[in-house]
Write a structure and sequence with these properties.
eight-stranded antiparallel beta sheet
Length: 389
């Protein structure tokens, strides 16, 4: 396993501007020096465990952030994200499946803005995929019989389409370790047959790849044609959330400082376009705090669409549901929205605890530049409890 190479060209000029952040964490009312010390101890134990598990690899760099309606109230980076460059709240990491939140928001935004297909069919949550793509008439739509699951935008968003997950069962003709063009992956997915009990949840990257492809078939009123899904996110979604450091894997935001991946597992499904729509976002703790605030404040989506995104769309376990890009739990007067992200060389976790009665919320985002098989959720939730104590 090779060690990280030189820092990306063009980023060195920013190093001096962000260097101080590593030793000067962001603080605000409610986050004390005592809490900072306890967080340091939690994270030290977590990183020491990673070191023991892979002593021959470079040491991973971790960043966490605490956010409320007041913005990013505490954040700190640990170690170097690249040689000589400290990890900070503004360091960009690949966030894996946290990308699904952005894809879901884009689909809901298109519906809210009365987008339609090229043939002027309006976009709705119950639009059948057989109206969007040619060659998928074997996917049930409005005429689904009893015992069949309609494959609609809603079923993709809530992962109830019954379409196989291509990262669990890749099409036989594809190479999970190589590149694949989006049209080729779409052609392979079109051969899939839905299989499963109607309305049952199965985590599926297939669903969010298809949603990204659907975005590229949608036309806004007054526009001549569709946009590539990345362009739509850049023009309609990122600015509304005030995201300055969020971009895409292989195409980061201009001037951003990226963490170097430390691989502990084979680099499967990490080439274009395997990640499209499902795991292709690169962001920072500072931007994820802004993203959480935009969602919770209602600035990102109107109330109806936000309720769809954060609603109990599909039952995962007796106590956990899936909305649209979020797992959802109800604990007393709190609603907990969370999601993890895992792509080769990076792991992420984002969790929001919301008290609807008090109209308050708090979030924790944790990003690390290596493959973490377990423990990220526990760390994030322990930090959340610490922040709330």
């Amino acid at each position: 396993m090779s060690r990280p190479g030189p820092w990306p060209r063009g980023a060195l000029w920013r190093a001096a501007l962000v260097l101080w952040l590593a030793s000067s964490p962001v603080h605000a009312a409610g986050w004390s020096e005592e809490k900072s010390g306890k967080a340091d101890a939690m994270i030290a134990r977590f990183l020491e465990r990673l070191d023991r598990e892979a002593p021959d690899l470079p040491k991973a760099a971790l960043v966490f952030g605490v956010a409320t309606a007041d913005g990013l109230v505490a954040a700190k980076g640990y170690r170097e994200a690249a040689p000589g460059i400290p990890a900070t709240a503004h360091t960009v990491y690949h966030v894996g499946s946290l990308a699904k939140q952005f894809t879901a928001a884009a689909v809901l935004d298109l519906i809210d803005r009365h987008a339609a297909l090229r043939d002027r069919t309006p976009l709705t949550l119950d639009l059948a995929l057989s109206r969007v793509f040619a060659g998928v008439q074997h996917w049930p739509g409005a005429g689904a019989t009893q015992g069949e699951q309609p494959v609609t935008l809603r079923s993709l968003l809530t992962m109830t389409s019954n379409l196989p997950n291509f990262t669990r069962l890749p099409p036989p003709s594809t190479d999970p370790w190589g590149r694949i063009a989006a049209p080729d992956l779409l052609s392979e997915i079109k051969r899939f047959n839905p299989s499963g009990w109607p309305n049952t949840f199965e985590y599926s990257n297939t669903s969010y790849f298809l949603l990204a492809e659907m975005i590229e078939e949608a036309v806004l009123p007054g526009e001549a044609g569709p946009m590539p899904h990345r362009d739509y996110l850049r023009r309609a979604i990122f600015p509304r959330a005030h995201l300055a450091e969020t971009g895409f894997v292989g195409d980061p935001a201009p001037g951003s400082v990226e963490a170097v991946a430390i691989h502990r597992r084979p680099r499967v499904f990490d080439q274009p376009d395997w990640l499209k729509g499902s795991a292709d976002i690169a962001s920072s703790v500072a931007d994820m705090a802004a993203w959480n605030e935009a969602l919770m404040s209602g600035r990102m989506l109107p109330d109806g669409s936000r309720a769809e995104m954060l609603g109990d769309g599909a039952r995962v376990t007796p106590d956990i549901y899936y909305g649209m890009g979020w797992f959802i739990e109800h604990k007393g007067r709190e609603d907990i929205y969370s999601h993890s992200g895992f792509v080769p060389g990076f792991t992420s976790y984002n969790v929001i605890a919301a008290d609807a009665a008090a109209s308050t919320w708090m979030s924790i985002t944790v990003l690390v530049n290596t493959d973490v098989p377990e423990g990220m959720e526990t760390l994030a939730r322990d930090l959340l409890q610490l922040a709330r104590d």
